[in-house]
Automatic annotation (TrEMBL):
Catalytic activity line of the entry: 2'-deoxyribonucleotide-(2'-deoxyribose 5'-phosphate)-2'-deoxyribonucleotide-DNA = a 3'-end 2'-deoxyribonucleotide-(2,3-dehydro-2,3-deoxyribose 5'-phosphate)-DNA + a 5'-end 5'-phospho-2'-deoxyribonucleoside-DNA + H(+)
Lineage summary: Eukaryota, Fungi, Dikarya, Basidiomycota, Agaricomycotina
Family statement drawn from the similarity comment of this UniProt entry: Belongs to the Nth/MutY family.
UniProt organism field: Fibroporia radiculosa
InterPro entries with a match to the protein in the record: DNA_glycosylase, Endonuclease-III-like_CS2, HhH-GPD_domain, HhH_base_excis_C, HhH_motif, Hlx-hairpin-Hlx_DNA-bd_motif, NTH1
Record's protein name: Endonuclease III homolog
Length: 701
């Protein structure tokens, strides 16, 4: 009987790492097996040497395979050394406990401060810099009024001022300054009125998420803010660090934020904070040869030649220049067109839908005269196609000379022939909304039309500023309207008056208000309204609804609100889309109203007179924060229990765990699981009222 040969064969044994559960360490050991010698199967995903990794704890060492029993193909010496270094890095990783969970501290390389070979200074850069500085002195950009440097103005304690600056910078990533400023203010109110490390630590995740939900990547930033606050509390005595490397070790903080935080919070000139505006504009100016590919390359180039004293103001200068002037996408110009040279051909002249030109063609002798906006060009007849002697293109001019004629319209209706019945339990609903509004600050509270007059000292100018704000507010958010009014005030000389508007060119006004909706049309409305106020009302705002509605671009809603805010006259209710939508959702109109004017007449027929001035801002703020047009937060609304017939409950059912939870009930710790799509189930109450908003958009109201 033959005896089978016994041989030794290497075997790989895997074990989980004590540092990270998703990492598996492998050991090679030799075992005796009966049979012929076989070669171990080589993994396609990794290579294993005869190196044995020790446990991080003081456990016994695993057996180490000898060189003769190692896998068939050994690793080369450099590969073995790299594997050993990776193993040593795993062992030396520092762990820190945070809220009962282990969390890795960020380990980054020191931020480079200089280039080995300095970049040459661009030619005529000082001349370019001074020209940009001069242009910036004549315009107000969002960064000037709502940048990260403004976040600390709401704080009185220096430590809280620095922390508010850091939070504003963390929220500003991938977000406009207007949205960031509003989110910081909302977060300050949500945590108790002051942005401090202790207040943020006490706040639940869902409170922070609800306050900053308008910024980009708000779920991730909620976690960053909580983790950064914990680090500041544990490692930096609840204060902002004073070095770039320490700041960059915080979650969600990069070099740009670190340099800007040192500039604004500590007044330390450590470097240039380069964002996308600075990176884009300096490359457009040709200051980098070759062009840089990322903001860090741009920063190192600039720091190698830009004088140190210019670094703190450089970012704000170019960011503001990039917001209204050198925008990422070329916007439509509001300046007058150059004379057009039209050559006749066999094709018809294309009529532009965007431009309305006054074109006059005359046949004089053998030439064709074409006049465009006062400029004329002569086209010889031999340049035209034979058989075509005249080119007649009629356009109506949009630019009027002189004073525009007053609008002729019917008097505004003030009351219904038959009053609308008073809705049941309306007082209870009204008081509940008022209570909810007292706990939340909406954009209309800080940037509404009544805030436009705060910067004016002359009563006549205060009333005019209110009217201008109302005219710009249609089809535009309050944040954008407020910024446009502020910018318009600066470009016309620091005060919004009728004379200043009349002296300003159309292009100057258009450039200031180009962020609002229908800005071209509103530019004409503002100029025509200023002319009528000068000629008909002694450069002041009228005191009646009919006179206000005779002005270009002014409708009933603006007229009633202007009388309330400018003259303190209670003439009626200003109904906008928020008031129209919410009162219909509450079932206050039987049948439902189709236009804001129908809503106004219904409300004025039964709502007490003393509530007329406040109901607009009350419901507008309620519509901005809770009862939004799309995705209303019914689970956060106190009216859902029997007071609102349109209330709905939104529930989320997770397929992976089979647990049903209310969406708005608990948002603590927002999580993202890749590959899992939650199934959303919407349950509507039996008395759901479906509102179809058929509001006409033919007018700017």
């Amino acid at each position: 009987m033959s005896v089978r040969k016994r041989s030794q064969s290497p075997v790989l044994i895997g074990r989980p790492s004590a540092h990270h559960p998703s990492v598996t360490l492998f050991d090679t050991i030799a075992v005796e097996v009966a049979g012929y010698e076989t070669n171990p199967r080589r993994s396609k995903r990794g290579r294993f040497s005869n190196t044995t990794y020790k446990e991080e704890s003081d456990e016994d060492e695993k057996p180490t395979a000898s060189s003769s029993l190692a896998p068939r193909r050994r690793l080369s010496e450099p590969s073995t050394r790299r594997a050993t270094e990776r193993g040593s890095k795993r062992k030396s990783t520092n762990l820190k406990k945070t809220d009962g969970r282990s969390d890795f501290l960020r380990k980054i390389k020191p931020i480079p401060q200089t280039l080995d070979v300095p970049h040459p200074a661009p030619s005529r850069w000082q001349e370019t810099y001074d020209a940009i500085k001069d242009m910036r002195s004549r315009t107000v950009a969002p960064v000037d009024t709502m940048g990260c440097g403004r976040a600390q103005l709401g704080e009185t304690i220096p430590k809280n001022q620095r922390f508010a600056t850091l939070v504003s910078l963390m929220l500003s990533s991938q977000t406009k300054d207007e949205v960031t400023s509003a989110a910081v203010e909302k977060l300050r109110e949500a945590v108790g009125g002051s942005l401090s490390v202790e207040a943020v630590l006490r706040a639940d995740d869902h409170i922070i998420s609800d306050a900053i939900c308008k910024v980009g990547f708000w779920r991730r930033k909620t976690q960053y803010i909580k983790r950064t606050t914990q680090r500041l509390h544990d490692d930096f005595d609840s204060d902002v660090p004073k070095t770039v490397d320490e700041l960059c070790s915080l979650p969600g903080v990069g070099p740009k934020m670190a340099f800007l935080a040192l500039h604004v919070a500590w007044k330390v000139n450590a470097g240039i904070g380069v964002d996308v505006h600075v990176h884009r504009i300096t490359n457009r100016l040709g200051w980098h040869a070759p062009p840089t590919k990322n903001p860090e390359e741009t920063r190192l180039n600039l720091q190698s030649w830009l004088p140190t004293e210019l670094r703190p103001t450089f970012t704000g200068l170019l960011v503001g220049f990039g917001q209204p002037d050198t925008m990422p996408v070329l916007k439509r110009s509001a300046s007058p067109l150059d004379p057009m040279h039209i050559v006749a051909s066999h094709t018809t002249v294309r009529r532009s839908k965007r431009l309305k030109l006054t074109t006059k063609c005359e046949d004089e002798a053998s030439d064709t005269l074409i006049t465009v906006d006062g400029s004329s060009s002569v086209i010889k007849k031999e340049d035209t196609v034979s058989g075509i002697d005249k080119v007649k293109v009629h356009r109506r001019s949009t630019k009027r000379t002189g004073t525009a004629s007053p609008r002729k319209q019917k008097p505004i209706q003030q009351a219904l022939d038959v009053p609308h019945p008073t809705p049941p339990r309306w007082r209870e609903v009204y008081d509940t909304i008022k209570d909810m509004r007292s706990r939340k600050v909406a954009p209309v509270d800080t940037m509404g039309c009544n805030r436009a007059q705060d910067e004016e000292t002359v009563p006549q100018n205060r009333r005019f500023a209110t009217l201008i704000s109302l005219m710009l507010s249609s089809q535009t958010k309050d944040e954008t309207t407020f910024a446009a009014v502020t910018k318009l005030r600066e470009v016309v000389g620091g005060a919004l008056s009728v004379e200043a508007i009349l002296n300003a060119d159309d292009s100057v006004i258009s450039e200031a208000i180009c962020k609002v909706g229908f800005w071209r049309r509103k530019t004409q409305y503002i100029k025509q309204t200023a002319e009528q106020l000068r000629d008909r009302f002694d450069s002041d705002v009228p005191k009646t609804v009919d006179e206000l509605c005779s002005l270009p671009g002014v409708g009933p809603k603006m007229a009633f609100l202007a009388l309330q805010d400018a003259w303190k006259l209670n003439a009626g209710i200003g109904v906008d889309v928020h008031v129209h939508r919410i009162t219909n959702r509450l079932g206050w109109h039987k049948p439902q109203t189709k236009t804001p004017e129908e809503t106004r007449l219904n409300l004025q027929s039964w709502l007490p007179l003393e509530l007329h001035p406040e109901i607009n801002s009350l419901l507008v703020g309620f519509g901005q924060t809770i009862c939004m047009p799309v995705g209303p937060k019914c689970n956060d609304c106190s009216l859902r229990e029997g007071l609102c017939p349109s209330a709905r409950t939104v529930k989320s059912k997770s397929r992976s765990r089979g647990v049903v939870a209310e969406v708005a009930g608990s948002l603590s710790g927002p999580k993202v699981e890749i590959g899992i799509e939650p199934e959303v189930k919407i349950e509507l109450s039996d008395t759901t009222v479906r509102l179809e908003e058929n509001t006409s958009r033919s007018q700017l109201e």
